[in-house]
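Title: Prediction job returns without error message
Component: structure pipeline
Severity: low
Priority: P3
Assignee: unassigned

Description:
Job completed but the reporter wants confirmation the result is attached to the right record. Sequence as submitted:
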Amino acid sequence: MHETVSPRQSAGLSSAEAAARIAAEGPNALPVPGRHGLAAIALGVLREPMFLLLLAATGIYLLLGDVHEAMVLGASIAGVIAITVTQERKAERALEALRDLSSPRAMVMRDGERKRIAGRDVVRGDLLILAEGDRVPADAKLLAATDLTADESLLTGESLPVDKRAGDTVFSGTLLVRGQGRAEVTATGPRSEFGRIGASLAALEPGKTSLELETARIVRLVAIFAVVLSLALMLIYALTRGDWLGGALGGLTLAMSILPEEFPVVLTVFLALGAWRISRHGVLTRRMAAIEMLGAASVLCVDKTGTLTENRMAVLETPQAVLDIAALACEVDLFDPMEKAIVAAAGAEALRVREAWRLERDYPFSDDFLAVCHAWRSPQGMLRVAIKGAPETVLALCGRTDAMEEVRRAAGEGLRLLAVADAGWEGPLPEDPRRYQFRFAEFVRLTDPLRASVPEAVAQCRRAGIRVVMITGDFPGTALHIARQAGIEAPEALSGDQIAAMDDAALAAAVRRANVFARVRPEQKLRLVQAYRAAGEVVAMTGDGVNDAPALKAAHIGIAMGKRGTDVAREAAALVLLEDDFGSIVGTVRLGRRIYENIRNAMRYLVSVHVPIAGMAFLPVALGGPLFLYPVHVVFLEFVIDPACTLVYEAERTEAGAMQRPPRDPREPLFNLRMLAASLALGLTMLGAVFAAYWWALDNGRSEAGARTIAFAAIVFSNLALLFATRSRTRTVLATLREPNAALWVITLGALAALGAAIYVPAAAAIFRFLPLGATELTVAAAAGLAGVAWVELLKLTGRAQ
């Protein structure tokens, strides 16, 4: 049905008017909960175990009367807070950017043109273009509505959709489940009905991923170990030397050296910045868990139209009379590329008829009626019914099943055929369009070319051990033609009717061999996802419609189409493609593999680097010697470790062979036995080399301070060598040096400069209890640092690295 719309309403607001209203009334948004300011982040740092340990050590120094050392630790506390706040604020800014991107989209008329804008930019007076699957961005009065129903359960609790007509109000946050319409915005943000009841519109809730939960368990176990070992060290020192404050200081130092407080920081920063990096490649992350699953994806289930093809429908030579009928069977508000192509091909006269005639009844496309049927009334009162849709549906209504052979021939050539028919009618319009006596007119022939980038992207998936599966509502012949052009192995296409006839066991067997599914109904996508999951596959699934939401939810990685997708599909998905392009999906898988690999390398570094530090905090005391490390030494090392484990590894690029490896097994934990054993072995060899340098210094008559200086320098050198060695699990340091990483060099040069200052600047050397080193001693320290990790490079050279 239509309502009269004034020229001003149809043109919408001007950009200047919209900007003025945003400035006066504020954006169409509610305050986002959970946003942390600098003060809130700093307060969180004050509750961290590392901060509390530093505070306790400062208190012990004050009890010992060492005010100078206490002041140094106090300054160190400020530095730790500054680094942590900077890291968390960087992650917070990335999440805020994602919240802005994930804001609901809205189609409005601005300056007389349709524009898709962020929901927060909608203002009072905007003219909204509404369609099935949209989430209404603001309260608005309907100016026109066609078969429109809304799910208002979010506001009213009523589960049944509500019919909406011109003059009714549609409310912010409600979901349109059918039909289309136009509406003028009457209230935005906190002034909307949704805003008045205090509902939250937080669009991105990161939650806890399985990686974060696994890391939390590891941190708890290590923390318990640290407490036990620290208490043991404190007792050993106190009982053998009679110095309880010194023992407490040694125990706190050991706890600081073991405590893996960087683990959760690494995950927070990597996942937040990973999502931000993925967004720069045109993919919005709505759920952080999807990032860690990307590298494990083994099946990509994708739609044909717009994903593999350009979604740029071109109408081939078709009689004008057929186009005139097909244009009447197109929606009033054109948004589908196919319908836009048909109306454009029909020309100005068809457009004039659509504007002059009145739409009396709309029979929408549905799962059991694969066609669109419109009943129009001419200005003279004549009724004309036009229908276009799937050939098997329309030809059956016309009694022309003999024409299906032509459909099969055209499909084999990659053409899409729509059957077109019309009918007359007198009297009340029927509820069921099948009652009309349709006359077959002809076919509209359309072509939608394959995207040029698709064959190479499919080939990349094949090399990466990922199956590409096409699921489409199109005719089987057309689907097979496009699949073969794309490089998808497709000996046959399984149809929706065949799927419906299969039980779960038969479908599970079928999905092992079939890569193309045609004439698939949306609810059957869910069965396909469940079948692949039952077969042990990690499934990524694309979708754009309201009925695709269950399949997107059920997939390990639901991917919604950003341009043609509905809001409900976007909300159900873990990822949203801002450009509906298959190449974006493949690029995202590559980034996902990179992010997971970089997290694994960072964790390997962290496990290894804490071993020599903790070992040198414990061994000298356990062997009857003096305290080797003090809190200030651990703080120095943390100033190297904290930025290194996030900035260096997060910036590492995708390895050349990342897409030549099969997907990882999602059941294998990050901290598996092999990873922990290799990391601990690396840490132990580093500890052995550092302790050897310490022993050499004492054996050659160096004082306690001199031995401490040599061994501490060896720890710093081994830390830097470890950074270079763990950038890649398989490539040598020389190979990775060719790849730029500015953070690596900044941290390396900064650490060496700081070490030099701590050794050779008298005031700093006094704080660290160091003595200046000669060339021989520096060489021993550097050699020990390199020796501890050299065996890893040898394994890489022999191809035995894991």
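Comment from assignee: result matches the submitted record. The chain is about 55% helix and 15% strand.
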